[in-house]
Amino acid sequence: MTKTRGGREVTELLISHLDWIDDAAGLSRSEVVLEPQRAYDALLRVSNQVAAMRKIIRQRLEPLLERNARNAAAAALPTRVAALEAEIAQPTVVSPASMVQIERLRTSWAATQGGAIIGDGADAPRPLVITPLVLLAWDDRAQPIADASSGSFWKDIQSALVAANGGIRFGHTNPETSNSGAQTLLLLAYGYSDARNLSMAQAQDGAFREWLAGVERAVPAPDDSTGTLMTDMLRFGPSKYDFVAVYENLAIEAMGSPAASNYGGLRTFYPPATILSDHPYVVLRAPWVTPEQRQAAGQFRDFLLSREVQQLALDQYGFRPASPQVQINPGDPASPFGRYAAQGIQLDIPPQVAVPPGDVIDALVATWRAARP
What we know:
The protein is of the alpha+beta class.
């Protein structure tokens, strides 16, 4: 919506995104200018997912309700909570971690609302930054990964987990609530089926469910956040996890932690076929998105793809740039790709598996749920 603020017109954008965009927005907040006489502010209200934001809102406002239960003004707070929830559920832009969430949104919207909420052409999803899924292990606990052959990588790891009978702890996040968990599940399914494109039948296959149960018996109760998973690995060491499936940028961040030298140090492994988190930026094709918001959102996307912001994403977060304006130089001492090469960080990305349609991903998550101990 367009408002007047400080004597000028601004257009508010509600952008559901991940944390790195906050720092980028701080570089040029209030300076996203489309026309000489008109400027647009990108007012970012972070929302990884609606459920998480609802929890935050209630945590902040419910104490006020409790403290002011006898105050007539408190009666308006539940209405405010409902209004905020409704606003959060209608973003202008979504920028989740990967196309996995975009495909699930595309499928669920078509099934419940009809039509397409994800655009094409100029409105098609555009990658902002890139990071592949990797396995990060304590070096003296990494043998099951090091011994796995490229042709049967996940099958070899599953066999090692089953043979260890609880002696090896593998960590991944909950695929119902976390992108990296869903990505890990996809790699496991592709590793089991050897398929080029995962089908509904393969996602629902009973033999695969039994095989997956062998993996899941080695996985403690999965976290909802990849960041929490990484923090717990560093904090508790092999008593919690021997190796985990995380984003490359988080593995790079972990390499710089004081805990990284424990237990023989950390080592990164790239599966022979991986999956990317490319943080797609999508201006929704939704009835609540105005032409002014659509134009401002396009300008803000271009800003996020600028050299300055892409360099920030590389230097501070370990993301690979999506823009060709910024190149990774592994010979640069400041580059994590040179600094941590001895720990397995590599410039070359293995081939990527195909992201299946949202209904296949949903079926795969249901199979995982049935396979959990």
